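Entry type: protein chain
Record version: 2
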Amino acid sequence: MGIVRTRKLLSNGCMAFTDIRFDLVNKLPPKARPYALLMRLDRPVGWWLLLLPSLWAMTLAGGGIQNLTLWDWYLMVLFFVGAIIMRGAGCVINDLFDRDLDSKVERTRGRPLASGTVTPIQAGIFLFLLLFLGLIILVQTSTMTIWLGFAAMIFVVAYPYMKRITWWPQAFLGITFNFGVLMGWAAVTHGLEWQTFLMYAGAFFWTLGYDTIYAHQDRDDDQMVGIKSTALLFGDRSRKWVGIFYAASWALLALSAFFTDASVISLGLLVLPGLHLLMQVLLWNPDDRLSSFKAFRSNRECGLLFLLAFVCS
């Protein structure tokens, strides 16, 4: 159960599967492993992409690393743990809604709910536990952050429906996944400023770009079972649109730093994630599943480069 299947393109063009073991999952007791896979502990890039925008906001709103208080550092620890827990909760909710669809898609048919390793009732109990732990973390933050956390859950629950009713589920994910910007800013400042929404918009376009890349892994299966995505909507134009989304993301994030009086060093360091996004678009092959997976996964490093710039604000 601790084995995650990832695709490897062979020289003859056929898809094979390579077993990759994630140490943490394999070290868990056998009965716990399906639940670790259910919350995607074997794929940490997901919680990194959830966590990083909140850290951007906290460091930029706090005036850089040198001005962060001990309480701010404690908040970052809470957001770190909360990102792992709430990303896991979101995955459980998504898999409960999608278990029938997941069983028809090659990449997802081995997930615990789709394969029957975990029953819906067991998943529901596990979800309640994750949400309870998330609530314990949330109530330690500011009042506005708490309200934003409750608002985010509305979008988390609605997200699984989006791929059934719109070609833009990636846009809805961008709205949902980046509530951390609003929550992180509010946690540090106990309020929101107009610069906050520049950062939120920048993070939105970043997610729209990388999740379009991610959706290219399942393009054929999604078309077969009737799942909608921007990958199918854009088709051969995906590279152009991802480039536009990334350009908008970088510009908005740079503006949020500029109008928050970030230092010259901070603004200069923003060149690094900008180059990363450019190389991502240039090197990505939309018709190669492995290329799509690698390009998507590299956004953790891109997010860390943005964080480096904001830390120096």
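Comment: Residues 58 and 73 are 9 Å apart (CA to CA).
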